[in-house]
């Protein structure tokens, strides 16, 4: 489940039948202590536009995420592949697939 809200991005990505990875965009200056579990669940509900059933949160971190595409990715016989060529947020959940794709078919750009 993904949401782009005026408060920021939110995502709930299932990791098996009983676990999820949750993402909430927040100011980079925030600390995990400023995000008690109740606030996390409330904020997810607000951004998703519907209540979210709470559960235990086992780990919480404020992580700087960014997306970058480097260019050019080729210098002669030297190729940049994977995250070295295009760093995408873990929320995209496709960095590994893209890296494998690059290795199979390096870009010529
Ligand atoms: C929290 C998180 C969740 C993710 N979830 C997903 C997901 O669900 N699905 C998905 O497809 N992708 C996911 N990704 C992205 C995926 O992990 C990366 O896109 C992928 O691993 C990129 O592969 P890579 O080979 O380019 O880089 P890496 O896997 O980072 O490999 C680079 C390697 O080079 C080594 N290295 C660095 N510097 C040097 C040096 N100077 N000398 C020698 N070795 C060096 C590093 O130690 C590392 O082993 C996730 C990433 C994160 C952080």
Automatic annotation (TrEMBL):
Pfam families: FAD_binding_3. This is p-hydroxybenzoate hydroxylase (EC). The keyword Heme does not apply. Its EC number is 1.14.13.2. Residues 5-104 form the FAD-binding domain. GO terms for molecular function: 4-hydroxybenzoate 3-monooxygenase activity; FAD binding. Keywords: Oxidoreductase. It is an enzyme of class 1 (oxidoreductase). The keyword Oxidoreductase applies. It comes from Amycolatopsis camponoti.
